[in-house]
Design goal:
mainly beta; 0% helix
């Protein structure tokens, strides 16, 4: 069973920066497309960003463009979400997810494996 564990959540100041990590235990990690999602209080889960298996293709939700950066290190079985210029509306539980996918539309593909999430709170 593929396991994903998010870490790095916590309290962040508005305008500040923060980085989340997603660690995968599967030996198939390098073959997975990785996505970051978030769910704010009272809202539906939404996609934030995704990165392809070869990390040459990254996609972002409109609210994340120019502020968030997704990356991965396959030697460490880890993906990252760098978040800059954080706003209170970025407060949410952030999830990482994985899927064996080779296409270019990873913002809308169905993901098969999910972490349990980590809370990010942006507040002064």
């Amino acid at each position: 069973q593929t396991q994903l564990v998010e870490s790095g959540g916590g309290l962040v100041q508005p305008g500040g920066s923060h980085r989340l990590s997603c660690a995968g235990s599967s030996s198939l990690w390098r073959y997975y497309t990785i996505g970051w999602f978030r769910q704010a209080p009272g809202k539906e889960r939404e996609v934030v960003s995704c990165i392809s298996r070869s990390h040459d293709n990254t996609l972002y939700a409109e609210f994340a463009k120019g502020r968030f950066t997704i990356s991965r290190d396959n030697t460490k079985n880890t993906a990252y979400l760098q978040m800059n210029s954080l706003k209170p509306e970025d407060t949410a539980v952030y999830y990482c997810a994985a899927v064996d996918y080779t296409g270019r539309g990873c913002l809308t593909v169905e993901y098969d494996y999910w972490g349990q999430g980590t809370q990010v709170t942006v507040s002064s």
